[in-house]
Amino acid sequence: MKAIIFDLDGTLVDSMGYWRRVSRDFMKTKGIDIEDSVQHKMTTMSLNTSLRYLKDYYKLSESFEELYNGFSDTVIDFYSNKVKLKDNALEILKYFKDRDKKIVIGTSTAKHFADIVIKKYGIDNYIEGLYTADSVGHIKGEEKFFTTITSEIKEDPRDVYLIDDSYLALRTAKSAGLETVGIYDENSKDKWHLVVEENKYSITNLIELKNI
């Protein structure tokens, strides 16, 4: 292990429940119940991509800009005032930084949203970079999301670990040659069996990374 890519939502911060609720609640105002399969597919997408996907999939009449503005204010408030860190998040970041491992974040969340919580809790003191689906140019369901990051940090994918709660992101990273560690999140528990089955490592608390 020379470098670690940490997911943000559902891994370092406890926010996946919010993302599921806000998407479902937002679509309910339009008389639409998001299907579970649609919700799972959106977990690897950026906000921009997921909104465009919802607009196309459900044939929404609103413009993308109207949809985005409807989401943006509530997301900013959540990251600024409500989101909490996952247990032992800062401790495990310090642990790996003290051991001279490269630490970056790879997230589907837009940079201007992610930056809020990263700076609020001092995560930026431990990481060397923030990579988003928008900045990389690929969603986390595409191998190029991960190979682009490993190329940027100048490491062989085989020497890079991904820590993520999304079975789709883990599956994709594994196909791209990375070592993968699945972390349990209550909001994706229905897919936990896949995480355990498909990955060499699976953990329920970040502190367990010390044993890997």
From TrEMBL:
Which Pfam families does this entry report, sorted A to Z? HAD_2
Q: Where is the signal peptide?
A: none
Q: Which domain of life is it from?
A: Bacteria
Q: Which InterPro entries match?
A: HAD-like_hydrolase_sf, HAD-like_sf, HAD_2, HAD_sf, PGP-like_dom2
PANTHER family (alphabetical)? GMP_IMP NUCLEOTIDASE YRFG, PHOSPHOGLYCOLATE PHOSPHATASE
In its UniProt entry, what is this protein called? Answer: HAD family phosphatase
